[in-house]
Amino acid sequence: MHTHFDLVVIGSGSGNIIVDERFTDWKVAFVEKGVGPFGRYGGTCLNVGCIPTKMFVHTADTVLAAEHGAALGVDMNLRSIDWLAVRDRVFGRLDPLAAGGERYRAAGRPNVVLYRGIARFIGERRLTVATTSGPVTLTADRIVVATGSRPDIPDVPGLDNALGYHTSDTVMRMNRVPRRMTILGSGFVASELAHVFSSLGVEITLIARSDVLLRQEDTDVARRFTELAQNRWDVRLNRKLLRAARKGGALLLDLESPEGAERLETDELLVATGRRPNSDLVDAVAGGLALHPDGRIVVDAEQMTSVPGVWALGDVSSPWQLKHVANHEAKIVQHNLLYPDARRTSNHRYVPHAVFSSPRIASVGITEQEARAAGRAYVSATREYSGVAYGWAMEDTTSFAKVLADPSTGKLLGAHIIGPESPTLIQPLVQAMSFGLQAHSMARGQYWIHPAMPEVIENVLLDLPLEEDSLETA
Description:
28% of the residues lie in helices and 25% in strands. It is α/β, with parallel strands linked by helices. Strand 20 and strand 21 form a beta hairpin. The longest helix is centred in the N-terminal third of the chain and has 25 residues, at 83-107. The mean pLDDT is 94.
C-alpha cells in the first residue's frame, strides 16, 4: 500500500506536540515504533526518562529525609519500603497517559493517521513502515524526524550473554530490587538511579572510567559530588569493564584498575554509559540525510536537514539530550511548517540542565575548565549554602553556588549549583544570561526574600570581583 501525506512525523515524544488544530487541513501521519521493550506511546521522557525517574527520585528524597532528621533532633524511623507500591505508583499513573495519548492520535482527528511500526527511509521523503498488518510505503511533502535516542551499550565480551543486564529502559520496572546492584557509568543517568536504588536499601557500586563522577560538570561541582557519592556508594574510579559472565545467580565483572585486575560480584548490572541517536533505526542515510560523526542528523538553525522538506529535532539531532530542548525545537519546527515564509531559528545560547541525584546539581553556560581552555577572560565567585540563613537552618555544610562572569561587562558566562533545590535556584541566573543582565545590577536591583535560599544567588553575584566603574559604562 502506498499513501501520500502533507506531513509525516516519526516519533511520539516531542514530535507529538507539533500537530494541533492549525493542521486541520493537512493530511498527517504519525509513526511510532514504541519505546524499548514495552512499546508505549509518548517517547522517552514520559515512559523511561525524565518523568518516571523524577517520580522515583522524589521517593528517594523522602527516604533520605528520615536520615537527615537526626541532625535536626528529630527521630524519624523508617520501618519499610514496598518496592511494588513505589513502582506501581509511578507507572500506574504514566501508563494510562501513554495509552490515552495513543488513543487520541489513533482516533482523535479525521485528518491524522497513526502507524505503529518502525519507519525507514527508502529515498528522499519516502518511507516504509513495518506494521503488524504488513509493510506500508509512505511519501510526504514534509517529514519530521523525532525518533529520539536509546541506551548505548559498550562492546564488552560476555555482556550480551550476561543473562539480564538492565538499562534505564528496564530497570525501573523490575519485579524486585536486588541486594546488590552495579552501575556501569558516571553520568546523570547513573548518578540519579544510584540515588534511587541506594535509598531503597540496595548496595550500589559505581564503575567510572574517569577520575570523577559527572565529569562534564564544572570541576569544583564534579569533585564535590564525587566526594559525597563516595560516602554513600562503592565508587570505583579509573576503571574499565573487561568482561562479564554469570555464575549461578551472581554476575561476575572483571575490571581493569590502576592497581591491576579486579573481580566484582553483583546481583544486577545497570548499563548507563550514554545514549545514541536513533538515526540508524530510520536509515537516515538512505533518505539522503547528512549525519554527524556520532550519528546525529545534521540540522541548521531552523531544524532543517540536508534534504529540503525534512526536519529533525530532539535527541536524534541535538547535542543536548534534554526534554526542554526537544520541546523548544518542536515548537520551532511547528512554526516553520505553518509559516514557511517567516521561519524562526532555535535558541540554544544558554541551555540549562539539572542532575536529580543527591545532592542535586544545576548548570548553565560554560564551566571554569571550558573558560580556561578557550582562553576566555573571566572572574568567578563561590558561595556556600551555609553562608545564608536558610542554608544554616538546614544544617547544610556541603552545598554551594558558583558563577563566572565577563570582567569587562559583568555579564554572566556560567552558573553551577550543587545542593537542594538547585534546579529551581538556577532559573534567575538563566534569565539573567538570556536577557544580558549585569551581575551586580541584578543582585542590587531587586529585593531578595529573607530568609530564603535565593539569598545564596544574591550573595554569590555580589561576591564577583567586578570593577564597578566599568560596569556603569558597559
